[in-house]
Amino acid sequence: MAYLRYRPEIEHPEPDEQATIDGIIDGMRQQVSTAERRQHHATRASHAKSSACVTGTLSIPEGLPAELAQGLFATPGDHPVAVRFAQGPGELLGDRVGTHRGMAIKVFGAAGPKLPGHAEDTQDFVLASGTTFPSGTASGFLRDGSVIGKATALPEGVKSAVASVARNFNRVLHAFGTESAMADFLGHPFNHPLAEPYHSQAPIRFGEYVAKLAVVPVSDAQLALKDWRLDPKQDEDGFRHAATDFFRTQDAVYALRAQLWSDARSQPIEDASVEWSETETPFRTIGTIRLPRQDAYGAERVRYFDEVMTFRPAHSLEAHRPLGSVMRARLQVYKALSDFRHQENGTAARATAGIGQIPA
């Protein structure tokens, strides 16, 4: 198969994109402030409630084909990783709300030219449970985000009801062979957090090429959980308890996979709401993430993950530069909101350059 090459010209920013990004930052700061008044503490503007904070290893195999042996993946070997699993909302809601979920990965020992402002030898991959980003573009997110931001002040019971309607709507659509990405964003199924895949949703540079990434569970213990469902009426912190119970006795293993860009028309760079057909371009394994059994929610480690450490698309090698409208917005939005959160809490964000800085 012929894969398309990366060139700076494949991106096409809108003329007013910076104004859009500024609007997103302003709106999400207001959202953080609204949640802070209720929680008496500023949390992340998205993925605020962590479920597991773990460390492990990314193994890059020998013998990858040339088109996959790119950037970080050009050199076989092992890299320490830190991984944070979390709920989607930017507030500490009970698990009955059940929206989309995230998996943030920090890879250590990632040497090479980096994006401006990033100095450590690390590479962050910020992933989510949906295959696409429903808003599609930065301007779309500004529109949708204004609605989500206004909803922050609503009672948790209302948010839970909205999530339930969205979840049931997708169940109906699924019976007809389709689903709504926005409904999934608002009301994700109550799956086990370690038993489902996570996606980059938008593309990144992949050395000489372009790709979307996916992290897919592959261990027998994780696959055995495919039918597990949380009963939120029984446990408002059920996702955390499920994840920590798993890590107490089991290892989690994920295949890290890349879907290379092959068709500029059907696989747009600028619109992250468009799913790239796996029939046209399948995901291919480029590494294995192993997260051994451990205490996944120790107090000092969680404090470090949640209050000190940051995961950002801008923590990147140039070889894996985030691409497209949504990703260009994220390059600025994550930093601005992290700075705001740390300022509100009177804490200093610290760059995590090595796995040894993370509490055991």
Arithmetic mean pLDDT: 92
Alpha-carbon distance between the termini?
45 Å
* Bulk shape: globular
- Count of DSSP strands: 9
Structural class: alpha+beta
Query: What's the CATH class label?
Result: Mainly Beta
Number of helices: 8
Give me the CATH architecture, please. Beta Barrel
Count of structural domains: 1
Name given to the CATH homologous superfamily: Catalase core domain
Q: Please trace the helix and strand order, writing H or E for each element.
A: HEEEEHHHEEEHHEEHH
Largest sheet: 9 strands, antiparallel
Low-pLDDT runs: none
Using the CA coordinates, give the radius of gyration.
19 Å
Beta strand %: 15-25%
Question: How much helix, percentage-wise, in residues?
Answer: 25-40%
Within the CATH hierarchy, at the fold level, what is the topology? Catalase HpII,  Chain A, domain 1
Entry summary:
The chain has 360 residues and is an alpha+beta fold. It is built from 8 helices and 9 strands. Helix 1 (17-39) packs parallel to helix 2.
Description:
There is one protein chain. The chain starts with 16 loop residues before the first helix and ends in a 15-residue tail after the last helix. The chain has a single domain, classed as Catalase HpII,  Chain A, domain 1 (Beta Barrel). The protein has 8 helices and 9 strands. Strands 1, 2, 3, 4, 5, 6, 7, 8 and 9 form a 9-stranded antiparallel beta sheet that branches. Helices cover 31% and strands 19% of the residues. 47% of the residues are buried.
